[in-house]
Write a structure and sequence with these properties.
5-stranded mixed β-sheet; single chain; Jelly Rolls; 413 residues; mainly beta; 4 helices
C-alpha cells in the first residue's frame, strides 16, 4: 500500500523529470546545420532521444492531486497475528495494586477512588463511582481484617473481597457512611492463594483519598490446613482435633471413638467423616441412640416425623432449664444433613413442656427449652443444625403427665 508521502514524492519526481535543457512549451531544434554534441567532437556521447512525454504546465497541481488521492487510500489492515490486549484479572485491563508490596514498604496503602475506573460492584454497595483493586496473597490460613477506618480516609468507602476479581461473589463486604467513611471486614480465607480486595466509592457525592490497612491473626491449628503434628492427616481428619476451635492437633494415646475404626453406634457408618455424629476424628460422639436413665426412647426417621406420646406411668428422670418436674418421654433423631430443626408438640389437650439436647444425659448440651409457644403446646427451633443426633424431651407443665403427639421437622439448608 502506498502512503501519501510516497505518492507525493513520486509526483514531485515526475515534475522534476521535465526536460531541464528546454523551456517549457518550446519545440526541440531539429536543424541539421546546427552543431550537435557529436559534431562538437564528443565522440562517445549517446544520441539524444526524443522526449515524447507530455509536459505538465502546472506541476504543483499534479502533486496536489496525487496527495489528495493518497489521503483517500484505506488504512492498513490490522495484523491478524497481533496478540489481543491483556484484560487482566478483572477482565477490563485495569491496573491491580500489589497490596503485599505496599504493606512491606509502608505498612499500609494510600489510594484515591476519585477518577478511578468504575465497573465493579460489591454485594453491599459500590455502584456510586470508581474503585481501586488490590491483590493480596496468603501462604497460610489466618484470620484477616481489611480496614479503611483511618483519618486519611475522607470519603465513604465500600470494601469487598473476592477470589475472582471479575466474578460478583464476595467473601465479605462492608461499607462506611458520611459520619464514618472508613469501614472494615474480617474473614478467614478458605485456602491459601491470591485474593482481590476492592475499595469502592460509597457515596454519590464522589470518591476521595483512603488508607487501607491489614490485620492478621493466627487461627486454631485444627482449621489451618496444615499437618501440625506431621502424622499425615490435617485438621478435623486428625485424631487430635476434637473440633474446629481446638488448638492442639497432638494425637491422644487412645484413639477417640470417631477414629477407632469401629462402628460404635452400629448405624452402618464408621468414624469421621462417614458418621454424621462425628464432627471431627478426635470426637467421642459416635455413640448409640441411648439414654442412661431411659432405655425406652422413641426414634423418628432422619428426615423427621411424628410419634404419639403418653407419659402416664413413666418416671421423672430429667429436667430442662425451663421446668420439667413430671414424667417425660425422650424422642431421638439422627440427621444426615445440615438443617433447621423444629421440635414441637402438635396434638391439643395437654399442657406440654419440651427441651432439646445434643447428648441425652448431659444437661450442658441443651439447645432450647419451651413451655407455651402455641397456646399450651410447645416448640423449640434449632437453626443451622449440624448433622448428628438430637434428643427431644416431652414433659408436662406443673409435673402433670401428658397425652400428645411429638413432631420433629427437618428443613435442609
Amino acid at each position: 500500500m502506498f502512503s501519501a508521502a510516497a505518492v507525493a514524492g513520486c509526483a514531485q519526481e515526475a515534475a522534476d523529470d521535465a526536460d531541464a535543457g528546454q523551456p517549457a512549451g518550446r519545440a526541440r531544434d531539429m536543424d541539421p546545420s546546427h552543431p550537435t554534441p557529436r559534431d562538437a567532437g564528443t565522440r562517445d556521447a549517446a544520441p539524444v532521444e526524443e522526449d515524447t512525454a507530455p509536459v505538465d504546465p502546472d506541476a504543483d497541481a499534479a502533486v496536489e492531486r496525487l496527495v489528495a488521492d493518497a489521503a483517500d487510500l484505506p488504512d492498513a489492515a490490522p495484523d491478524p497475528d497481533a496478540a489481543p490486549p491483556d484484560p487482566g484479572p478483572c477482565g477490563d485491563g485495569r491496573p491491580v495494586v500489589d497490596l503485599n508490596a505496599a504493606l512491606a514498604a509502608d505498612g499500609h496503602y494510600d489510594g484515591d477512588t476519585s477518577g478511578a475506573t468504575a465497573g465493579l460492584v460489591g454485594l453491599c454497595g459500590g455502584a456510586a463511582g470508581g474503585e481501586v483493586v488490590l491483590k493480596y496473597t496468603v501462604d497460610a490460613i489466618q484470620a484477616l481484617t481489611f480496614a479503611t477506618d483511618f483519618p486519611e480516609t475522607t470519603a465513604p468507602t465500600v470494601i469487598y473481597v473476592r477470589e475472582d476479581c471479575a466474578a460478583p461473589a464476595d467473601l465479605a463486604c462492608n461499607r462506611g457512611n458520611d459520619e464514618a467513611p472508613g469501614t472494615r471486614i474480617a474473614f478467614e480465607p478458605p485456602r491459601p492463594g491470591t485474593y482481590y480486595v476492592v475499595v469502592d466509592t460509597g457515596s454519590r457525592a464522589g470518591g476521595g483519598p483512603f488508607r487501607l490497612g491489614v490485620e492478621t491473626e493466627a487461627v486454631p491449628v485444627c482449621r489451618d490446613q496444615r499437618d501440625n503434628d506431621a502424622d499425615g492427616v490435617i485438621d478435623l481428619a486428625d485424631p487430635g482435633c476434637t473440633g474446629a476451635d481446638d488448638d492442639d492437633e497432638a494425637d491422644p494415646a487412645v484413639p477417640p471413638l470417631c477414629a477407632n475404626g469401629i462402628d460404635d453406634d452400629e448405624d452402618g457408618r464408621t468414624d469421621h467423616p462417614a458418621d454424621p455424629d462425628c464432627e471431627a476424628a478426635g470426637s467421642d460422639a459416635e455413640v448409640g441412640l441411648a439414654c442412661a436413665l431411659d432405655p425406652q426412647l422413641l426414634v423418628v426417621p432422619p428426615m423427621g416425623g411424628q410419634v404419639p406420646i403418653d407419659t402416664n406411668g413413666r418416671a421423672n428422670n430429667y429436667q430442662g432449664s425451663c421446668g420439667g418436674t413430671g414424667p417425660e418421654q425422650v424422642v431421638a433423631i439422627r440427621t444426615n444433613v445440615r438443617a433447621t430443626l423444629t421440635f414441637a408438640t402438635v396434638q391439643p389437650g395437654s399442657d406440654t413442656l419440651i427441651w432439646v439436647r445434643r447428648a441425652c444425659d448431659d444437661g450442658g448440651t441443651e439447645l432450647g427449652c419451651n413451655d407455651d409457644a402455641n397456646g399450651v403446646l410447645s416448640e423449640v427451633v434449632v437453626p443451622n443444625a449440624e448433622p448428628g443426633t438430637y434428643y427431644m424431651f416431652v414433659d408436662g407443665f406443673g409435673g402433670r403427665p401428658v397425652l400428645t403427639t411429638a413432631q420433629i421437622t427437618v428443613a435442609p439448608l
